[in-house]
Write a structure and sequence with these properties.
Layout lengths: L19 H32 L1 E7 L1 E3 L6 E12 L2 E4 L5 E6 L6 E2 L4 E5 L2 H43 L5 H41 L1 E3 L4 E6 L6 E2 L9 E2 L3 E4 L4 E8 L11 E6 L2 E18 L4 E8 L11 E7 L2 H6 L6 E5 L4 E3 L2 E8 L2 E6 L1 E6 L2 E6 L6 E5 L10 E6 L3
Parallel strand pairs: 1-25, 10-11
Antiparallel strand pairs: 1-24, 2-18, 3-13, 3-17, 4-12, 5-7, 5-10, 6-9, 7-8, 9-12, 13-16, 14-15, 14-17, 15-16, 18-23, 19-20, 20-21, 20-24, 22-23
Helix pairs in contact: 2-3
Length: 414
């Protein structure tokens, strides 16, 4: 009797229909993905709607008031020293001594550095010795001449007494002339030796680097051991200067004024200086010079403004803003003129061919059409469209629509 044949059909895997367990796992994953997407969308919508888009705002500035009123012209620039120099050596050599550092105050003529000078000292000693030798030779020649003068005088007396011949007298005269010539030569040799000593002394002194004026060291440009030269060579192996120094008593501000406004600037005009480092402080100034040339590419004219009452906090190369002021007499004569409104140049935009600014009111951004003047010192005058004091957006315009909620992150608070 044969054994029964087993039924293997139950062992077949149906690849078309997933198992119930796989279906449950797939449905759970899809549900979690949908919930996560809804949560992320809700967070984004809450940030955009409830909190609002992040923006930066400033308050529209009203220029005017009594006293010295701003004429509305503002320019940006930097603090510079009118007296400034990169101090170098007159000759090339290796720096052996540096007696100053950044911030050191020095006097005119003070030795601030020295080059290696052993060879120059040796040359000076050699020149001094040569001078002594030539002086000794001059003394010897002068003594020989004096002796010949005495011998000639005695020979003439003997000749008068017929005790000497004329030939002896003539020989002594010839020798005296030669001795006089040798004395003259030795005098010239002594003068040449003195000149050589002077040259050697000057070369030695050139190894001593002195301050050209009273001032403060701003920067060390070389260190001990480096080679310095009046003219720096390529490759960075030779320094062209030892230190950079300036007279901080001559600090002023250089600004570039738009040439459209330069006619309103005059020499001696009062000004107000605001440093970026100390924005709450105001320093009185006055226009010292209007440089008689314009920058063709930037359409600006450089103006130099003196700092009338400075302090030790003001340093060269600090960023500064200068507001040019009217004289009190001019203000009194123009008290009835309307105030002027200014905003940063970045706040003025072009929307659909129209000049606008975005104004924040009650946590929302609104478009306001304006008539704006040209940029001056990073600001623009708003001739119409604002009344002053509005909070205008300077950054964060992207994607904004009229009436959108916004959130101020810097500048004026809500």
């Amino acid at each position: 009797m044969s054994a029964p044949v087993p039924d293997l059909s139950r062992l077949r895997i149906d690849r078309d229909d997933p198992s119930p367990g796989s279906l449950r796992a797939l449905k759970a994953s899809a549900t979690l993905a949908i919930v996560a997407a809804v949560f992320v969308a809700a967070v984004v919508l809450w940030n955009r709607g409830s909190r609002g888009q992040e923006v930066t705002v400033v308050v529209a500035e009203v220029v005017g008031g009594g006293g010295a009123r701003s004429v509305g012209i503002t320019a940006n620039g930097y603090v510079v020293a009118r007296t400034k120099a990169s101090v170098s050596s007159k000759i090339s050599g290796r720096l052996a001594y540096l007696g100053v550092s950044e911030g050191s105050r020095v006097r005119a003529g003070q030795i601030i550095a020295r080059l290696e000078n052993a060879d120059y000292q040796a040359v000076l000693a050699q020149a001094a010795a040569e001078k002594l030798r030539s002086e000794a030779a001059l003394l010897e020649s002068a003594a020989r001449r004096d002796q010949l003068q005495r011998d000639l005088a005695r020979s003439r007396e003997l000749l008068a007494a017929n005790l000497a011949s004329e030939r002896e007298v003539e020989d002594l005269q010839s020798q005296l002339v030669g001795a006089e010539a040798r004395v003259g030569v030795q005098r010239a040799v002594v003068l040449a030796a003195e000149a050589a000593v002077g040259v050697a002394n000057a070369n030695l002194d050139n190894t001593r680097i002195r301050a050209p004026f009273d001032g403060t060291v701003l920067r060390k440009d070389a260190e001990v051991g480096e080679v310095v030269s009046p003219v720096a060579s390529g490759g960075g192996f030779t320094r062209g200067a030892v230190v950079t120094m300036a007279d901080l008593e001559t600090l002023e501000v250089e600004v570039d004024v738009n040439e459209a406004y330069i006619a309103q600037i005059r020499s001696g005009q009062p000004a107000r200086i605001i440093l970026d480092a100390y924005p709450n402080d105001r320093y009185p100034g006055a226009v010292r010079q209007i440089v008689p040339t314009a920058n063709r590419q930037r359409a600006t004219v450089r103006v130099k403004v003196s700092i009338l009452e400075g302090d030790d906090r003001i340093l060269p190369e600090m960023a500064a803003r200068v507001e040019f002021l009217e004289d009190p007499e001019v203000v009194e004569a123009a008290e009835g003129l309307p105030m002027r409104i200014f905003v940063p140049g970045t706040a003025v935009r072009t929307l659909a061919g129209e000049t606008v600014v975005w104004v924040v009111r009650g946590g929302q951004a609104f478009v306001s059409s304006v008539d704006a003047g040209p940029v001056s010192g990073g600001r623009r005058e708003i001739r119409s469209g604002l009344t002053g004091g509005e909070r205008v957006i300077t950054t964060g315009f992207e994607g904004l629509e009229d009436g959108d909620a916004v959130r101020v992150v810097t500048g004026a608070t809500e």
